[in-house]
Predict the structure.
Amino acid sequence: MDNSNVQSLSGRSKVVSDKKLSFVERLYLPAIFKGMVITLKHLLKRKATIRYPETKREFSDIYRGRHVLKRDDQGRERCTACGLCAVACPAEAITMVAAERKAGEEHLYREEKYAEKYEINMLRCIFCGLCEEACPKESIFLTTEIVKSDFLRDRFIYGKDMLVEPIDKPIDISKRQTPAVLAFKKEKNRKHND
Amino acid sequence: MKVYLFYFLCILALYSALMVVISRKPVHNVLYLTLAMFCIAGHYILLNAQFLAVVHIIVYAGAIMVLFLFTVMLLNLNNESEFRKPALVQLGAVVAGGLLMLTLVGVLKQTDMVMTTDPTTTQIGLVKNLGKVLYNDFLLPFEVSSILFLSAMVGAVLLGKKD
Amino acid sequence: MDQQFIIYKTVLALSIMLISLLVAMYSTLAERKLAAFFQDRLGPDRAGPFGLLQPLADGVKLFFKEEFMPASANKFLYILGPSITMLVALLTSAVIPWGDSLTINGQTYRVQVADVNIGILYVFAVVSVGVYGIMIGGWASNNKYALLGAIRAASQMISYELAMGLSIIAVIMMSGTLSLQEIVDQQKGFNWNVWYQPLGFIIFLICALAECNRAPFDLPECETELVGGYHTEYSSMKLGFYLFAEYINMFISAAIISALYFGGYHFPFEDSLGLSANMLTIVGMVVFFIKITFFGFVFMWIRWTLPRFRYDQLMGLGWKKLIPLAIFNMVITGLIVRLLN
């Protein structure tokens, strides 16, 4: 097969030839020496390893890690169990059960309807961020935390106990909730804002 | 001390030499033969002939016996595959072995068992002395044997070549 | 033979044995660290500072692993294999001159366990016996991979012993002695044999790699083809013996290379330092260890640079290239020695 007119995509391909080796090449010693110099250079190079628990790899500000269900400024859950996130989820990782707010629970839930149960299967989730985009209530956000490894599959289904942000330790998501994102979410011609 | 060592080596050498013949497993035979070689090397050391001992180990234990072992391991010899030889061959072997033993006994009876020189004091077995003897007094046999080796090498190459 | 002499020799022999084992232990760490560094990684660094306790952790792990023995293995030979390998590996260090002489209580002792007048041949004999450990272990395992590995090891070691011996003969012709002590003492100062025997040195280095079964000559245990080679069926400390013996062999090979070609415990300008005899001996020993460490590093450097040989290439290199070259080297050396005298 003639490959002469096939273009190299990486620009680094070499044409292989079967030419007879010269005497010096047949000695192999120069080539071996060259190889040894290459490895010696790598010996002195900076290492690529990150010693994990002590040093952590720097995350991007908008890294899509595990989810959080935000509270509002009075500490009430923002989620109204509308189900838009579950609909938007391409991996079908989100399920929820809605419930009606009783009298006297106004300090817990922001609106009359809330999520009694809210579960995300972290093994199914692909961390695309579509739930966050779909949410009309600014409730669900992805954080820079990673999902911890575990031995049991059951423990990867995160319930509200894992997802809702603790009252005393609010999670900062201002990097993800930029003015541009906010404006996008308020656009009237978008379906989810109807 | 030396005498005890001598007797220990003798007994070990005789035992392993006997086991070479008696043992039914080919690989064990070869290993016993190797052990016998080591015992003989030990005797050389007792006679203050270190060079001879070391060369004995290098050549016999280190090369020839390894090749033996090599071949025997590859052959996959089992006890079942051993076939009985015809009675005539067995009789011939017994007669030949008996004759060899008779010769050996005769020679040993003739030999004067007194050492003319004590090798532990004359240092005849050391490299320098051995080399001088080998290259002055025994030059012709030495060269003849080297020709023998050369022809053996040529023969081996010829046999090993694919025609 | 007075008592002090016997005590001195016993202490020396024991300490050399212990040092060999210690060096072998830390060679495993050095190997892993260097392998990592050559590949832009960090290597083991969890056990102790810089991973310095890693060999201990490995040793403990090896001790507590299950002692497994194949049901159809020959029990006696199965245990004999690693034992012979370890024994042979530790035997070689007896004739290596680790330093000049020390004066203790007005008596002078050589820093060498036994100054045999055929030192280099002794090393050679012991190395040639080393094949048995591998062959017996491989055969007794009753496993076809182990047997193939053992057979490869045997044929490889026999083949490269020849070229090794021929390259040593050139050195022996030059120095006119078989004693390692005298060979080293003739290289006093900077008068190293490697300047006179560069070809012999390269042949010896290649053969030493092959004798130690190290990459690029690690065909007896190449994982891709033979599972684990001759030690496929071995576990626990019996496997540890095989692995340890390899590192001790490497240490001894490095020592012999430095003694034969790089002046052993001699170093340039040693007389102009104005040190006392004992002090000079100790400095010489340190220098010898530095040389050994360097060659150990070279062994590992080669291992993590070069790919493994194919089997026919291995045999071709040994028989068709190295042996003729070594004979050529021997003839040239003989001619020059004859002409100069």
